[in-house]
Amino acid sequence: MSIYLKYYFWLFLISLFAFILERISPWRKEQKAFRKGIWQDFFWLIFNGHYFGILLATLAAYILGLFNHFLLANKIPQPENIHLFGSLPFILQIIIFLIIKDFIEWNIHRMLHKVPLLWEFHKLHHSIVEMDWIGNFRFHWMESVIYSSLAYFPLIILGVDKNVIFIIAIINTLIGHLNHSNLPISWGPFKYVLNSSKMHIWHHDEINHLSYGQNFGITLSVWDWIFGTAYWPNEGTPEKLGFDDLNKFPKGLIPRLFYPFYKWIGIGKKKSKA
Questions:
Q1: DSSP conformation letters of 90-105
Q2: Predicted confidence band at 3 (pLDDT cuts at 50, 70, 90)?
Q3: Number of domains the chain contains
Q4: Cα distance between residue 67 and residue 63, in whole Å
Q5: Is residue 14, in this structure, part of any structural domain at all?
Q6: Contact 92, 207 (CB under 8 A)
Q7: What is the pLDDT of residues 79-130, one digit of tens each?
Q8: 158: exposed, middle or buried (C-beta count within 10 Å: 0-12, 13-18, 19+)?
């Protein structure tokens, strides 16, 4: 297979592109290129962007094989055989799939903030205190499991071309890098459609301005504007990024991998006692 059809090739290219742009025209000029914690973020970039993706795809293929066998045995149509949009023009498939996928992920993102058990996994992403492009991939691997699990059925029945999924993965990575970058991006009049660094930084504000958070958009910002979860002051940036008990969150790589699980158990025990 050509290297151009490999996701990690585009991940590297987009990462290099964002890094160079930050050096040419940084938004926060005092912020260093190799700021504190960036070497750990390179682990998350490589692990989440490549190795865990391979592991998750292999595991998913095995589970889906068992699931499809069960459906076949019980004469139930397999989701991937429904092909709702498979006959549509390629460009239209990209647009429709991007919109539906983004709306599903916007809702999952809200759940990660609203549900205490899920928030423990999402805390890793919000442990960022200096935003830049590589922060896009600082997230716990369980988030990939959660997103993939909850989005599988709604997306698989669309039956879009596999190349559509690949192209959207590249688009989402590009916008995600730019959203977290140290670049003064707002998209002007398109801010009501596309997420941006100037909007997304307020999602990482230590303060929750709208109940359990604000600006949950992944690639598109439109859902936040429609459903009233948008928060974007005209000037400035948050005084502090993170969350209110960040000082209790582990700083080491290994503890961060396991912290959500023992914290999760602790929350479950508290609920059972109540």
A1: HHHHHHHHHHHHHHHH
A2: confident
A3: 1
A4: 6
A5: no
A6: no
A7: 566 666 767 898 998 999 999 999 999 999 999 999 998 999 999 999 999 9
A8: buried
